[in-house]
Amino acid sequence: MDRIKTLIIDDEKPxxxxxxxxxxxxxxxxxVGEAADGEQALELIRRLRPQLIFLxxxxxxxxxxxxxxxxxxxxxxxxxxxxxxxxxxxxxFNLHAVDYLVKPFTDTxxxxxxxxxxxxxxxxxxxxxxxxxxALLAHFQSAGGVAAPPANEHAxxxxxxxxxxxxxxxxxxxxxxxxxxxxxxxxxxxxxLLVRMTMNKIDEALDPxxxxxxxxxxxxxxxxxxxxxxxxxxxxxxxxDDGTKLTIGPSYRxxxxxxx
Length: 260
Prior knowledge:
Elements: E1 4-9, H1 13-23, E2 29-35, H2 38-48, E3 52-55, H3 64-69, E4 78-83, H4 89-94, E5 99-102, H5 107-122, H6 128-142, E6 146-147, E7 156-161, E8 164-169, E9 173-179, E10 182-187, E11 192-196, H7 199-205, E12 211-215, E13 218-221, E14 225-230, E15 236-240, E16 245-247
Parallel strand pairs: 1-2, 1-3, 3-4, 4-5
Antiparallel strand pairs: 6-7, 7-8, 9-10, 9-13, 10-11, 12-13, 14-15, 15-16
């Protein structure tokens, strides 16, 4: 059986050396080269045609994310991001990465990512939705937060709350409330989920055609808005179909134009 051609891309030589040491323990993989920046990596990818790449995010000249965007989707290698930065995970999954490893990681976590890459290469017939789901599950087992699966970018939301993963249909979210370092997601079945993340982060993950931010601490699903109502101190608000009334912040009054 042919070995999997693998390329290491990282601007730090010690990091490349450490990755090579881990990869050479797996006889199913063949490390065919190393690159120290994005432009060198693009040249090696075109010349060596690796099937799997291990890629840092922050690099000179081109970031790992910018580099991947320059590769045509057809024939693109499988990608495992290896980085010290956790805040690029959503973008990585939107590029259909196999996994996103945040340093430091355990040998077990690394081995699981490699096995997932092997499985994806073997099961090329899997739908992108299933591949994405596997990657999201792996990422959220080791990190909290939220992501919108790229196969249908705004259809579902994956959040980690109370130590469990929750896969939400966005249409089932009534509104989102900011509470300091957390957000509370109010669901149409009157359930609530408390998730450790920022309002800006969940605002990015929600469908902009369906959700609107009406206050620094409030995001609303427009499909559940019954009417605009007067509030105290000459302010205005939105009344939802369950009777909930939410104030529109002074800086967000332009949102009323979307309801006309």
